[in-house]
Amino acid sequence: MGSTSDWETMKFATDALELLGVPYEAKVVSAHRTPARLVAYATTAKGRGLQVIIAGAGGAAHLPGMVASMTALPVLGVPVRSKALSGLDSLLSIVQMPGGVPVGTLAIGEAGAKNAGLLAGAIIALQDKQVAAKLDAFRAQQTDDVADSPDA
Known about the structure:
Shape: globular
Order of helices and strands: HHEHEHEHH
Radius of gyration: 16 Å
Strand content: 5-15%
Number of strands: 3
Distance between the termini: 38 Å
Largest sheet: 3 strands, parallel
Strand order of the largest sheet: 1-2-3
Helix content: 40-55%
């Protein structure tokens, strides 16, 4: 994430990863305040065994795109809600990547972070049967929860 204040949103991604049994690391890596850390993180990610990167950022939200420019790993961008424009600025910054530098962009805020964790899990589940089984169980439970609700 781009800032420690983003943790309030990004913890929803880690909650989803924990539910699926996917190991992760949570780091503050700012595109603007720690550019050397960003370069080191992004360029060594694959060699360190990472398979997907979830990058959450608010405001100018350059982190997901900058990470994607330095690694061939899938990068999922989470627009963090900002004070000025409620995250619309973050969303537009992340979603408007130039052709050739893809960033999968999720919804603004908590739902986007949760979905980023689930999507990262789905990518990993393509090669990991245990994660696939946990993802299937989560989705089945989610369906059952809706079916069991009083409004169903």
